[in-house]
Design a protein that fits this description.
630 residues; alpha/beta; seven-stranded mixed β-sheet; five-stranded parallel β-sheet; 31 strands; globular; binds coenzyme A; binds adenosine monophosphate
C-alpha cells in the first residue's frame, strides 16, 4: 500500500509532494512553490527557484566527499578502450570545456548542437553547456546530414560540438563530412564548431570555423556554474512526429532534476556510489536521463558503453560489463535482449560470467515481449522491470518502484503510474473506459515535473499535437488498457510513428523522402512486425505513368534515398512497387489494413474501402518480398 498512498498524495497535493522531493537537489535559491498554473494548459514547475544542473551532477559531489569516486566508466569494445573518470576529473574537464565555450561567447540561453558518438566527451559537452546555462541539443549519430540540418535550422545554435567519427561494427561513420554537409544545407550557420579528433579518423578542420577540442581549451579559465531559473531549458531533444519535421521537446531544468532524483532510488533502486548502467545512446532521451543526468545527480557511477549487444565481440559483452564493474541496475531496450537471445538461446554466455551484483533489469523504449522477458528473467535470475515512457516525459510514466515498494511484476505490463502521472484510458469522445477496455492512453494535466512544458518555439504545435484531442489531458499517442489492479498495458500507437529497435521513427517522414524520388507518384510506409527489431519500415511505391524502368532498380534507389536523407537508423530496406494503394472513399490510405496483411493477421475488409480488389494486389506484392514472413 505504500506505493498507492504515495501515488495518491502526488496527485492530490502536487505542490507539497514535489516540494518535498525538491530537497534532494541543491538550489542557489530554493523554490517557494512547485507548480505554476497561471498559463494552463501550459504548466511550469519550480519557476521561482534558481539552480544549475552541472553543479548538481558534478560539483556538489566533489565538494561533498565523492571527489575521488568514479563518476564515469568508459568501455568501448569497438575501439578496444577502457577508461575511468572520478567526479573531480570529470568536473575539471567539463569546467575547462565550458571555459573554452564561454571565451568564444557562448552564454546562458544560447543553443549548442552536439553530434557525437558514445564517448565520454559527449557527456562532457552536454555538461559544459549545462554549466553555462546554454541549451544543448544532441543529435543521434545515426541520422543523416539532412536531419542534422533540420535540427540546426530549428534550434539555431551558436556553436556545434562534434567528434571526427563514430565507430559502427565494420565501418567508420564519418561525422565531420556529415556535419559539413548539414551546415552547408542549413540556412542558419553556427559561429563556430568544436571538433573532438578521435584517433580512428582525424578530420579536416575548416579554418576560421572549426576549433580543435584540445587546442581551444589551452590557456582558458575554467568556467563556474551559472545559476538559471527553474524553468530554464536544460536541453532540446528532437523526436519524431507524424511528419518529417521533428518536434523539439523542451526539458526545463529544475523539474527534470527533481523527478530524476526521485527515480534513482525509488524506481531503479540504486544507491549513491553504486554502478548504474544504461546501454543506449546519448542521442536518445534514455541516454540523456539515465546515462548522463540521473546517475550523476545521484552520486552513482555511470557506464558509457560504445558497442552493441552482439558482435562486439560476442553475445557475452553485456555480462562481462556487469561482472567487471559490479553493475547493480541495468537498463536497455528489449531489442538488445532479442539480439542476444538469438545468438545465445541457451544463455551459455550468461553462465560464463558472474552477474550476481545485478538486482534488476529494466527494459523500455518499445514493447517488452513476454518471450524476451521470460528468457531474461530465467538467465539472469533477477526481476525484469518493463517501464513505459517517452521523449516528451523524460522519465518513466509507468514503472515498478523497486526501491520503494517492489510490486508484483505482470509480464506484458509496464506496471503502474509513477508519482504525478494520472494515467487514464479514454474512448474517442474523451470519456474514461472501464478496466480492461482498450482506448487512447492520456494523462490528466498537469503532467509532473520533468516532462515537456512546451515545444521549442512551437507552442501552437505543442497544443495541437498533445493537448487538443482530449481537453484537460496530455495525449500520449499510445493505445492500451488498464486492468482491474491498475496495471497498464501498451498495445499500439495511435499515429504514424513506428518503433524500430527501440528507435522512434516517423513513417510520414519516410513517405516525404520517397515521394521526392522522380519516378514515385504516390507512396505509403507502414511498420511491419520484426522478430529482432520489433518493427521494420516497409514502403509501397506507385510509380508515375510512363515509368518503364526496372522496378528493382527504383526500389534500390528508394532504399538508398531514405538512407541518404534520414540515415541508417531508419533501417529502411523493404519496398515494393504496386499499381495503386488501398484507400477509403474519401481518399485516406488504409495503412492499418496493409499492416495486418503484411503481418499475416486476419483482415476484415473496411466498410469504407473504395475498391476491395486492391487488397489482393497488396497481398500479392507483399508475398513477392516474403511477407507475411514465416
Ligand atoms: N551512428 C551511426 N550509425 C548508427 C548508429 C550511430 N550511433 N547507431 C546505429 N547506426 C546504424 C547501424 O550501423 C545500422 O547501419 P547498417 O544499416 O549499415 O547496418 C543502422 O543504423 C540500423 O541500426 P540498428 O537498427 O541499431 O541495427 P543494428 O543491426 O546495427 O543493431 C541491435 C541491432 C538490436 C543490436 C541494436 O539496435 C541495438 O543494440 N539496440 C539497442 C537499442 C537501443 O539502444 N535503443 C535506444 C532506446 S532505449
Ligand atoms: P521515445 O520517445 O523514442 O522514447 O518513444 C516513446 C514510445 O516508445 C512510446 O510512446 C511507446 O510507443 C514506445 N514505448 C516506450 N516504452 C515502451 C514500453 N515499455 N512498452 C511499450 N511501448 C513502449
Amino acid at each position: 500500500m505504500r506505493y498507492a498512498d504515495l501515488h495518491r498524495r502526488s496527485i492530490e497535493d502536487p505542490d507539497g509532494f514535489w516540494l518535498e522531493q525538491a530537497q534532494a537537489i541543491d538550489w542557489v535559491q530554493p523554490p517557494t512553490r512547485a507548480l505554476f498554473d497561471q498559463r494552463a494548459p501550459i504548466y511550469e514547475w519550480f519557476r521561482d527557484a534558481r539552480l544549475n544542473a552541472c553543479w548538481n551532477a558534478l560539483d556538489r559531489h566533489v565538494e561533498g566527499g565523492r571527489a575521488d569516486q568514479t563518476a564515469l566508466i568508459y568501455d568501448s569494445p569497438v575501439t578496444d578502450a577502457k577508461q575511468t573518470y572520478t567526479y573531480r576529473e570529470l568536473r575539471d574537464r567539463v569546467a575547462s570545456l565550458a571555459g573554452a565555450l564561454k571565451a568564444r561567447g557562448v552564454q546562458k540561453g544560447d543553443r549548442v548542437v552536439i553530434y557525437m558518438p558514445m564517448i565520454p566527451q559527449a557527456l562532457e559537452a552536454m555538461l559544459a553547456c549545462a554549466r553555462l546555462g546554454a541549451i544543448h541539443s544532441v543529435v543521434f549519430g545515426g541520422f543523416a546530414a539532412r536531419e542534422l540540418a533540420t535540427r540546426i535550422d530549428d534550434a539555431k545554435p551558436r556553436a556545434i560540438i562534434a567528434a571526427s567519427c563514430g565507430i559502427e561494427p565494420g565501418r567508420v561513420v564519418h561525422y565531420k563530412p556529415l556535419l559539413d554537409g548539414a551546415i552547408e544545407m542549413a540556412t542558419h550557420k553556427p559561429e563556430f564548431c568544436v571538433i573532438f579528433q578521435r584517433e580512428q579518423e582525424v578530420a579536416q578542420l575548416i579554418e576560421g570555423r572549426d576549433l580543435d577540442w584540445h587546442e581551444c581549451q589551452v590557456g582558458v579559465e575554467p568556467a563556474d556554474c551559472v545559476p538559471v531559473d527553474g524553468d530554464h531549458p536544460l536541453y532540446i531533444l528532437y523526436t519524431s512526429g507524424t511528419t518529417g519535421q521533428p518536434k523539439g521537446v523542451i526539458r526545463a531544468t529544475a523539474g527534470y532534476l527533481v523527478a530524476l532524483a526521485w527515480t534513482m532510488k525509488n524506481h531503479y533502486n540504486v544507491n549513491p556510489g553504486e554502478v548504474f548502467w544504461t546501454a543506449s545512446d546519448v542521442g536518445w532521451v534514455v541516454g540523456h536521463s539515465y546515462i548522463v543526468y540521473a546517475p550523476l545527480l545521484h552520486g552513482a557511477t555511470t557506464v558509457v558503453f560504445e558497442g552493441k549487444p552482439v558482435g562486439t565481440p560476442d553475445a557475452g559483452t553485456f555480462w562481462r560489463i556487469i561482472q567487471e564493474y559490479g553493475v547493480v541496475s541495468f537498463f536497455t531496450a528489449p531489442t538488445a535482449f532479442r539480439a542476444i537471445k538469438r545468438e545465445d538461446p541457451a544463455g551459455e554466455m550468461v553462465a560464463q560470467y558472474d552477474t550476481s551484483s545485478l538486482r534488476a533489469l529494466y527494459l523500455a523504449g518499445e514493447r517488452a515481449d513476454p518471450d524476451t522477458v521470460i528468457w531474461a528473467q530465467e538467465k539472469l535470475q533477477v526481476p525484469v522491470v518493463d517501464h513505459w515512457w517517452q521523449t516528451e516525459t523524460g522519465w518513466p510514466i509507468c514503472g515498478n518502484p523497486q526501491g520503494y515498494e517492489a510490486l508484483p511484476v505482470k509480464i506484458g505490463s509496464p506496471s503502474v503510474p509513477m508519482p504525478g502521472y494520472d494515467v487514464r484510458v479514454l474512448d474517442e469522445g474523451g470519456h474514461p473506459v472501464a478496466p480492461g477496455e482498450l482506448g487512447a492512453i492520456a494523462i490528466r494535466l498537469p503532467l509532473p515535473p520533468g516532462t515537456l512544458p512546451n515545444l521549442w518555439q512551437a507552442e501552437e504545435r505543442f497544443v495541437k499535437s498533445y493537448l487538443a484531442a482530449f481537453p484537460g489531458y496530455y495525449e500520449t499517442g499510445d493505445a492500451g488498457y488498464i486492468d482491474e489492479d491498475g496495471y497498464l498495458y501498451i498495445m499500439a500507437r495511435t499515429d504514424d510513428v513506428i518503433n524500430v529497435a527501440g528507435h522512434r521513427l516517423s513513417t510520414g517522414g519516410m513517405e516525404e523522402v520517397l515521394a521526392s524520388h522522380p519516378d514515385v507518384g504516390e507512396c505509403a510506409v507502414i511498420g511491419v512486425a520484426d522478430a529482432l527489431k520489433g518493427q521494420l519500415p516497409l514502403g509501397f511505391l506507385c510509380l508515375n505513368k510512363g515509368v518503364a524502368r526496372d522496378h528493382g532498380e527504383v526500389v534500390r534507389e528508394a532504399v538508398a534515398l531514405v538512407r541518404e536523407k534520414i540515415g541508417p537508423v531508419a533501417a529502411f530496406r523493404l519496398a515494393v512497387v504496386v499499381d495503386r494503394l488501398p484507400k477509403t472513399r474519401s481518399g485516406k490510405i488504409l495503412r492499418a489494413t496493409m499492416v495486418k496483411i503484411a503481418d499475416g493477421e486476419d483482415v476484415t475488409v473496411p466498410a469504407t474501402i473504395d475498391d476491395p480488389a486492391i487488397l489482393d494486389e497488396i497481398a500479392q506484392a507483399l508475398r513477392s518480398i516474403g511477407y507475411p514472413s514465416a
